[in-house]
Amino acid sequence: MSGAKEIRTQIKSVNNTQKITTAMEMVAASKMRGAQQRMRQAQPYAEKMRQVIGHLAQANPDYSHPFLQRGDGNASSDGKSGAVGYIIISSDRGLCGGLNNNLFRGVLRELMAHRKAGEEARLCTVGSKAIQFFSRLSAPIIGEVSQLGDTPRLQDLIGTIRVMMDQFEAGEISRVLLCYNRFVNTMTQAPTMEQLLPLPPSDEPELVERGHTWDYIYEPSAEEALSLLLERYLESLVYQAVVENIACEQAARMVAMKSASDNAGKLIDELNLAYNKARQAAITTELSEIVAGAEAV
Amino acid sequence: MAMTMHIDIVSAEESIHSGTASFIIARATGGEVGIYPRHLPMLVQLQAGEVTVRDEFDNEQFYYVSGGTMEVQPHVVTILADAAVRAKDIDEAAAEDARRRAEEALANRTSEVDYARAQAELIEAAAQLRTIQKLRKNARS
């Protein structure tokens, strides 16, 4: 009966694992709903800002901000070919399938391409998985923030964004890419790389084609208003990416835990079969021993 | 009926208020401003302080914003509130913090990162083992 007993303990342990994964799946599902809610809440701010900035840039065509890309879309025409900055957003915890690794692989590919082209890279990481992964590379990490929890505050991100903006303004970085997972739906998360700086020109036609011209009354000045708004806009973009990444993390964890629970169920079935076979074999042996014994007498 | 305008107070983290108002008071960098409907388009920087929203029934509501920008259109007012207390030196301190954290993480990479690497290797080994087992099973049957 020794084989049967071993199998029984194994079944018990797999059962416990299944209980944990099922619980984690449900927790992830409810957290995902919260994260999606936050994603939606952050949207009106960015939308409104885009409108105001679009109008500002149009009303003051003579004033150009370094954050804004000019209409011709040629950022490097002024001879600046500094390093490329990356803001990489990851989760703090694992057990979420290939979510982080898919993103990192994309970033690595990009990094290699830049290295071949002779461009340097500077990294800023959000989340402890990213710093663990990228600290093995030779690319310098100039800013880091992790342990944001499920409800990140914009306040915690300011420092990391500031580091990038400072270097961009100083001309050390010629452009900044934002790398995160975009939430498509529960099953799909798309690793995304977007250009954050300089801001690509907005392609909203209704802003450009509006016939009548009007302008705001500014207080204190148009330049200040524009640069403040741009700064806040960038922050809100990064914040939104972080919130979206959290929604992705929870969705990915939910799917991963679901398949883990399913696998555990399959394993239990297999083990049960093996257990029954072992038990039956033991009974058969015992019976045949008894019969043999009776015959001998 | 009193004339009204639409007011939205939004921050990067959430939408704080949305409704109609007949009069709004906010604290701009140059002093308090009061907005009635059909105001000229205006873009105002706000400093930390109260925003008073009076609706058409003369009920007043107060909101605290820690700074931000107010966009005024004749019938729509939008306050883009900052999500946190902001000042140039606070921002710089936060940036310094982020830099320091990165350096620290790089300095003591041995502990946690080695653990992560060991974990990755373990997963890889386990996967290889599983494949070998599967191959063996197939060979036997």
UniProtKB/TrEMBL annotation, chain A:
Primary localization: membrane
Can you tell me which residues the record assigns to a coiled coil? none
Q: Please tell me whether the keyword Transport is annotated for this protein.
A: yes
What is one cellular component GO term in this UniProt entry? Answer: plasma membrane
Where does this protein reside within or beyond the cell? Cell membrane; Membrane
Alphabetical UniProt keywords:
ATP synthesis, Cell membrane, CF(1), Hydrogen ion transport, Ion transport, Membrane, Transport
For this protein, the record's InterPro entries field holds: ATP_synth_F1_ATPase_gsu, ATP_synth_F1_gsu, ATP_synth_F1_gsu_CS
Q: How does it sit in the membrane?
A: Peripheral membrane protein
Give GO BP annotations, semicolon-separated. Answer: proton motive force-driven plasma membrane ATP synthesis
> Which Gene Ontology molecular-function terms are recorded?
ATP binding; proton-transporting ATP synthase activity, rotational mechanism
Q: Kindly name one Pfam family recorded for this protein.
A: ATP-synt
Quaternary structure and interacting proteins, as annotated: F-type ATPases have 2 components, CF(1) - the catalytic core - and CF(0) - the membrane proton channel. CF(1) has five subunits: alpha(3), beta(3), gamma(1), delta(1), epsilon(1). CF(0) has three main subunits: a, b and c.
* UniProt function note: Produces ATP from ADP in the presence of a proton gradient across the membrane. The gamma chain is believed to be important in regulating ATPase activity and the flow of protons through the CF(0) complex.
- Similarity comment text for this entry: Belongs to the ATPase gamma chain family.
Descriptive protein name: ATP synthase gamma chain
Q: Which organism is it from?
A: Spiribacter salilacus
Give the classification, highest ranks. Bacteria, Pseudomonadati, Pseudomonadota, Gammaproteobacteria, Chromatiales
> What gene does this protein come from?
atpG
UniProtKB/TrEMBL annotation, chain B:
**Mode of membrane association:** Peripheral membrane protein
Q: Which GO terms describe its cellular component?
A: plasma membrane; proton-transporting ATP synthase complex
Q: Where in the cell is it found?
A: Cell membrane
Instruction: List UniProt keywords, sorted A-Z.
Output: ATP synthesis, Cell membrane, CF(1), Coiled coil, Hydrogen ion transport, Ion transport, Membrane, Transport
Reading the lineage from the top rank, the first entry is: Bacteria
Q: Which InterPro entries does this chain map to?
A: ATP_F1_dsu/esu_C_sf (IPR036794), ATP_synth_F1_dsu/esu (IPR001469), ATP_synth_F1_dsu/esu_N (IPR020546), ATP_synth_F1_esu_C (IPR020547), ATPsynth_dsu/esu_N (IPR036771)
Q: Which residues form a coiled coil?
A: 88-135
**Keyword Isomerase recorded:** no
Write out the GO MF terms: ATP binding; proton-transporting ATP synthase activity, rotational mechanism
ATP synthase epsilon subunit C-terminal domain: residues covered: 88-133
Residues annotated as domain ATP synthase F1 complex delta/epsilon subunit N-terminal: 5-84
The record's function comment reads: Produces ATP from ADP in the presence of a proton gradient across the membrane.
Question: Mind telling me which PANTHER family this protein's record contains?
Answer: ATP SYNTHASE DELTA/EPSILON CHAIN, ATP SYNTHASE EPSILON CHAIN, CHLOROPLASTIC
Family (UniProt): Belongs to the ATPase epsilon chain family.
Subunit text: F-type ATPases have 2 components, CF(1) - the catalytic core - and CF(0) - the membrane proton channel. CF(1) has five subunits: alpha(3), beta(3), gamma(1), delta(1), epsilon(1). CF(0) has three main subunits: a, b and c.
What is the protein name given in its UniProt record? Answer: ATP synthase epsilon chain
